[in-house]
Amino acid sequence: MPVRNLLSRSRPIAALAVPLLASFTLASFTSRSALPCPVAGAPAEPTELGAAIERQPICVGSTVASAGELGDVLYYRSSVGEDGEVSVGYYAFFSEERPWGNNWLTWTVLPALAVDLVYTHALLFAPGVQRAVYGKGDVEGFRIVYSVGEGGRLTAERGAADRGDHGEVQLERSDLLSIDPERPTVYSRWWSHQLGGRGAGPGDLAYRRCFGAGAIRPLPPDVALDFRLDRRAAPARVVPAAALLGQLSASRRGEPVDGGSAQGLVVRRPIVAL
User: How many CA atoms within 13 Å lie on the side-chain side of 242?
Assistant: First the structure.
């Protein structure tokens, strides 16, 4: 009798454990598959402003642990305003966007499983709604506006990022420096990695990665096109959506327009979602 009772009690536990195990196992196989690789070859010599941006340390973190590995490179685009301020849009790449981790969705099990069954992976294996709507991986964008001081020194003045409901939130200088007064830090409070968190202190982050020279690079057009950044990570967009894709998009997707280049080649206009 005790053995029978034990077996009957173990069935619901096994029913939950099997999909959880499948979910975590799948994550281990795909942890880096959706992260962009650094561009091969020697990088172009940065401009003076580009060099200052790439030296400026930026940190990305979260107050909760969740699935998805943060990439090794923070890509950026920049724009200079009429007042001389520099807006820099940063793109942080995560390998996946899933609810599993040290958060309430996971510990209550069924909500996380329901999200994973539909949003991330249909029946845990096939691509889900997230992939169909946004494309591979998870890309989070944020923007920091800098003033330029003597010697080209950049000082963070304000920023913007997404909150958990994908609405844009404005970040004050105090928000950017609340974790580290020397290095602007953006962080998430949600399993889905949006980086518009506010109100945290130095000891509140579950993890933090800081990027600096060599790990902050200009956004390559092929990465922008591959991850469809013309319609994702909106807070990072400091240039028109079409400009993110650059000339590379003309050879991979687009439609012909009248006219030609100086070399006699057909000029193409990228198809983008503005």
Answer: 8
> What are the structure tokens assigned to 82, written together?
């009429």
* Phi, psi values for residue 19, rounded to 5°: -65, -35
- 3-state secondary structure string across 211-243: ECCCCEEECCHHHHHHCCHHHCCHHHCCCCHHH
The pair phi, psi for residue 17, each rounded to 5°, is: -70, -35
- Please list the helix, strand and coil fractions of the chain in percent, rounded to the nearest 5, in that order: 30, 30, 40
Per-residue pLDDT of the chain in tens (274 residues, 90 and over written 9)? 443 443 343 344 333 433 443 344 334 334 455 677 665 444 556 789 999 999 999 999 999 888 778 999 999 999 999 889 999 999 999 987 566 666 666 666 666 666 666 555 555 555 544 555 565 668 999 999 999 998 889 999 999 999 988 899 999 999 999 999 999 999 999 877 889 999 999 899 999 999 999 999 999 998 898 888 888 889 999 988 788 887 554 444 444 433 333 333 333 333 332 2
Distance of alpha carbon 67 from its chain centroid, rounded? Answer: 13
C-alpha 138 chain-centroid distance: 6
User: What is the C-alpha to C-alpha distance for residues 274 and 269, in angstroms, rounded to an integer?
Assistant: 13
Alpha-helix residue ranges (DSSP H) falling in 33-128: 48-55, 104-107, 110-115
Residue 145 forms beta bridges with which residues?
87, 158
Neighbouring residues of 73: CB distance < 8 A, sequence distance ≥ 6: 36, 38, 93, 211, 215, 216, 217
81: alpha, beta or left, given left = phi > 0 and alpha = psi -120 to 50?
A: beta
